[in-house]
């Protein structure tokens, strides 16, 4: 293998050309850009225009290709285990898709980075140079561990910023930092992320998972468990089948999809409640529709669950087991990332296009044509980018790795943040959901009782997110404001 000398100056010269970014981005479709503020003609809705809006498009992001991984039909926890296996003791993998516990979450990403870093420490000596591809939570966690252990580490990041799918926005349009990526920490006995944020001066608050549910007509209704019960029965039926099927197929074939469409006095039918459970639970937890998610390993399935719920899930699944309340980050995940990256050699705006490895080491090729040699590499790029084959491996990855990449799913959950001059709603509930009518934004977080600011965050997932990703900012805003009409205060 060619182990030609490569310097940070060479890398920075390549960055200045901009070619390394466009090498990957030029072959992707255009994506709507976040809009800091909203101006122009009023949209056709009774909800007032916001002062500011930010939206996301994670599927259209060339360096993400989705929001987080989920268990697709046929995927199992063994696929995640296969993906995190080192290759020839030279190429190591981290990222939420490889997490042993809580894949799809920030804490899962951190755990995976610490695990990969420890694997390198166990095999390498401290004279070796280690590259980490990706400066998200997994990459920076691995790099921090390695630097603290005395290794020479370089982190190569395709974006012009660190953080990956964690994207904290702090500017004059917003009274506090907003998170375009994950906003929540799922509480568990194995994570201390909330404590670390507190130490660093970034606030987080316990967040209720009990939503105020409204019909499209604006009536507040009690959550009817009939939908969640039908879902649980379908997943229990699927667990006894000889082969995995989709959640949708399990609902239909188990007979739990025949709920009545006759509306009750509330204006909501049993079938509406099943749709509500799918829209505010399964789709938000996985970023995928019921026709794509494994019934064996869906969130809440009785099988040994893959725990694929999103870190952004805050909905009430209606199941008997009540998970610990998540915590909402208000002081910015960026604080934790900046602390991890302190004194680490991070080079941004450089795309790695080839990882070539043999018994002697690893050679990396960058988008602008440069190459560099290291002893070992930790790859933390998202599953969606691996599935796009934007990064080439030579020789090709073992079949088990390629099979895992193909089997796992990459879900999509996008957000809209809206800041209003004053609240148009009167409810103090911090979590809202909508039943009936299939709204694009079925879940909303009300920041007013938590921050004193009239700010709302809505989520759109799965096929709804795919459809809205291609529309203009104006049409995106129309869809968001239309979904908020049930929460208008009575005149």
UniProtKB/TrEMBL annotation:
Q: Which UniProt keywords apply?
A: Signal
**Protein name per UniProt:** FAD-binding protein
The protein's matches in InterPro entries, at most eight in alphabetical order, are given as: Amino_oxidase (IPR002937), FAD/NAD-bd_sf (IPR036188), Flavin_monoamine_oxidase (IPR050281)
Q: Does the keyword Transmembrane apply?
A: no
Q: Where is the signal peptide?
A: 1-25
> Record's Gene3D superfamilies?
FAD/NAD(P)-binding domain (3.50.50.60)
Which stretches does UniProt call biased (Low complexity)?
A: 298-322
Species of provenance: Cryobacterium melibiosiphilum
């Amino acid at each position: 293998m060619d182990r030609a000398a490569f310097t940070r100056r060479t890398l920075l010269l390549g960055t200045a050309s901009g070619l390394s970014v466009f090498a990957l981005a030029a072959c992707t479709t255009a994506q709507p850009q976040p809009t800091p503020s909203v101006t122009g003609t009023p949209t056709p809705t009774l909800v007032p225009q916001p002062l500011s809006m930010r939206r996301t498009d994670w599927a259209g992001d060339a360096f993400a290709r989705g929001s987080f991984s989920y268990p697709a039909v046929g995927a199992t926890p063994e696929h995640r285990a296969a993906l995190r296996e080192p290759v020839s003791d030279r190429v190591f993998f981290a990222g939420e898709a490889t997490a042993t516990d809580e894949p799809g979450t920030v804490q899962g990403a951190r755990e995976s980075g610490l695990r990969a870093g420890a694997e390198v420490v166990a095999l390498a000596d401290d004279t070796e140079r280690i590259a980490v591809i990706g400066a998200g939570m997994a990459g920076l966690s691995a790099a921090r561990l390695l630097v603290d252990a005395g290794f020479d580490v370089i982190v190569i990041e395709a974006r012009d910023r660190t953080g990956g799918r964690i994207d904290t926005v702090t500017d004059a349009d917003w009274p506090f930092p907003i998170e375009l990526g994950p906003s929540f920490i799922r509480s568990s006995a194995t994570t201390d992320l909330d404590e670390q944020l507190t130490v660093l001066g970034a606030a987080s608050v316990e967040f209720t998972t009990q939503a105020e549910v409204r019909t499209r007509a604006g009536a507040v209704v009690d959550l009817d468990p009939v939908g969640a019960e039908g879902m649980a029965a379908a997943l229990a039926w699927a667990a006894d089948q000889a082969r995995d099927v989709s959640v949708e197929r399990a609902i239909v074939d188990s007979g739990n999809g025949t709920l009545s469409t006759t509306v009750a006095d509330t204006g909501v039918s049993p079938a509406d409640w099943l749709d509500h459970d799918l829209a505010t639970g399964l789709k938000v937890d996985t970023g995928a529709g019921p026709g794509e998610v494994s019934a064996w390993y869906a969130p809440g399935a009785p099988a040994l669950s893959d725990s694929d719920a999103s870190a952004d899930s805050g909905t009430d699944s209606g199941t008997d087991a009540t998970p610990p309340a998540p915590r909402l980050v208000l002081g910015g995940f960026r604080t934790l990332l900046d602390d991890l990256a302190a004194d680490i050699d991070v080079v941004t705006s450089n795309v790695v296009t080839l990882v070539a490895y043999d018994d002697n080491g690893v050679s990396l090729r960058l988008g602008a044509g440069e190459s560099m040699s290291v002893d070992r590499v930790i790859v933390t790029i998202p599953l969606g980018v691996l599935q796009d084959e934007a990064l080439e491996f030579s020789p090709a990855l073992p079949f088990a790795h390629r099979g895992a990449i193909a089997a796992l799913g990459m879900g999509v959950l996008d957000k809209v943040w809206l800041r209003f001059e004053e609240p148009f709603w009167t409810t103090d509930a911090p979590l809202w959901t909508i039943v009936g009518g299939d709204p694009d934004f079925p879940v909303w977080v009300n920041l007013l009782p938590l921050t004193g600011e009239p700010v709302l965050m809505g989520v759109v997932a799965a096929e709804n997110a795919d459809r809205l990703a291609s529309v203009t900012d104006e049409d995106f805003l129309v869809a968001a404001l239309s979904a908020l009409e049930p929460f208008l205060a009575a005149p």
